[in-house]
Amino acid sequence: MKTLFQFTVILSLTFFVSSFNTVENDILSYKKTASGTTVYTNSDADNVEELSNDFFKRYSDLKKYKSDVMSLYKNRTLGTIWFDEDNINEFGSVLYEKAKKTNDLIIPYQKEIDDLFSSSETKISKTDADMLISSLYIAYAKKSIIDSKKKVSYDAMLKDFLNYSTIEEANASTATADVKVEYDQYYKLQDVLKKYKKLDRTNKWKPIVPAETPYKDLRPDAVSNTITQVRNRLYLLGDLKTDSKSDVYDRELMDAVMKYKVRNGFKPNYILAEEHIKEMNIPLSDKMETLKLNMERCRAISAQIAASDEYVLVNVPSYELIYVKNGKVQLTSSVFVGAPLTKTTIFNSEIDRIVFSPYWTVPQSIVNNELKGKIASNKNYLAEKNMEIVNGQVRQKPGPDNSLGLVKFMFPNPDDIYLHDTPSKTLFDFEKRTFSHGCINVKMAKELAVAMLQDYPEWNQAKIDKAMEGKTENSFKLSKKIPIYITYFTSLVNENGEIGFYQDVYEKDAELSPEKAISLN
Fold first, then answer.
1. Of 484, 521, 217, 506, nearest in space to 338 by CA
2. Quick check: keyword rRNA processing in the entry (predicted)?
3. Contact of 63 with 56, CB cutoff 8 Å
4. What is the Cα–Cα distance from 27 to 161, expressed in whole angstroms?
């Protein structure tokens, strides 16, 4: 499979390099407008010298490179070298990174070149940009020849450079330059970051400006210019395969909206509310910063996860739990977590016990702040809530209405946080699920218990069902502890390779990078 992939890539690159011989009508010859800007029109070989003279007149510090730069184009009729359609290709990006790391290399027009490879908007035409990068190549090549004392023509060097091995070598050096991150989510986020950088350079990401003021929710069959803009946004993000530019909220767009909502943690319906438009309007620069922050979070837990063949991961911003065993996701469940005033703590531990039909010993803070007044005003309150006082503590007896539901998962920690079932299933229908006093409420708690006990033959389905009848507390100690990671990722790539961005519910991104903090309010 790897051989086939490499053959495909090499074949594609062969086609790409050979295409340099093709004349690109929009960039080969030019005329001056009244404003003095350069506009490229039809090709004519007689215009090549005039075009080059014009370029080196405007970029006079590059005149010393003129003959060498033009030699690169002699067999390409000035077809672009460093562009793939409207985007700088991988060879251009590799050259830029190599040039930056070359000691004592003086690069004329450094700012203009930096702008080409950053998210900054540039008014430079594609032809000027290509020739600027070619000038950078000559400067880099001259320095390389001086350092290595080689005698090679620049055109021959370029042919060697425009080779897939150049990209492979660059990727390999990048991989060895950094400490390897074992958690593969890091590299998934890195791939998305590359795609977003490429999208950012196209300057196609424009703010969606709602056609109606005040904004009105959009539903299927609606007709609006806002729909046209949303359609384009979802096309750029990959949720739509094509952009029909239609202003009708049709079946095709419904499917794309659903895909977009599910991967970003929104309630799965077809309504386009104002909050969804605001999320779509978050600048790409902010999204890229979010990706970088979460790549660093991957580094922080990489070693532990790499050493675990079985673990539970709870991600607070996406309100989701996954149970992984033997490298495969066995179960995914919605959760709700601590409210902003009683935040769920971010930490790692090991699940060592599963408790069926648990008692709930009510924390004293809840007794003082919430229950004392109710007990004082209603003498039957404890009985009505299936509660009792034991050794001076209020606890709720096992049963279907117990606040912990019918099962809880225990792991040592100073904050007394654990996973548990809940009778309040309707709370999982909310998009923002910050309701608890810090513990993590699991929608599929029973299914999680069943999955965890598969290696314990004595715990068959009948025994689990009986233990969860809610009559008597039954605690089982696991012979093999299961690592649990309570994490805070505001962006993650799911099992289908789709990126999701989630609300910074505890404002932890803002703590790490306040100038880039994202607000969805």
1. 506
2. no
3. yes
4. 24
CA–CA distance, 213 with 363 (Å, rounded to integer)? 48
Instruction: Quote the CA–CA distance of 515 and 215 in Å, as a whole number.
Output: 28
Nearest Cα neighbor of 203 from 263, 113, 115 is 115
Compute the distance between CA of residue 263 and CA of residue 498 in angstroms, rounded to an integer. Answer: 7
Rounded CA separation 514/286 (Å): 11
Give me the residues of the chain with pLDDT under 50, please. 1-44, 174-177, 514-521
Please, is 104 exposed, middle or buried when counting C-beta atoms within 10 Å of its C-beta (0-12, 13-18, 19+)?
A: exposed
Q: How far apart are the first and last CA of the chain?
A: 47
Q: Please tell me the predicted confidence (pLDDT) of residue 82.
A: 86
CA distance 44 to 469: 85
Token couple for 332: 């995914």
Q: Which pLDDT value is given to residue 149? A: 54
| pTM for the predicted model, two decimal places | 0.66
pLDDT for the residue numbered 53: 86
Measure the CA–CA gap between 310 and 313, rounded to whole angstroms: 10
Task: Report pLDDT for 180.
Answer: 65
455-480 confidence digits (pLDDT tens): 999 999 999 999 999 889 999 999 99
Helices 90-100 and 110-117 meet at what angle, rounded to 10? Answer: 130
The β-bridge partners of 500 are 492
pLDDT value at residue 16? 37
Is the Cβ–Cβ distance between 287 and 192 less than 8 Å?
no
Catalytic pick among 276, 298, 420, 437: 420
Phi, psi of 212 (to 5 degrees): -110, 140
Q: State the catalytic residue, choosing from 276, 298, 437, 439.
A: 439
Give me the amino acid identity at 15.
F
CA distance 517 to 118: 20
* pLDDT, position 90: 78
User: 3-state class of 176 per DSSP?
Assistant: helix
Catalytic residue check, 439:
yes
Q: What are phi and psi of 458, to 5 degrees?
A: -70, -20
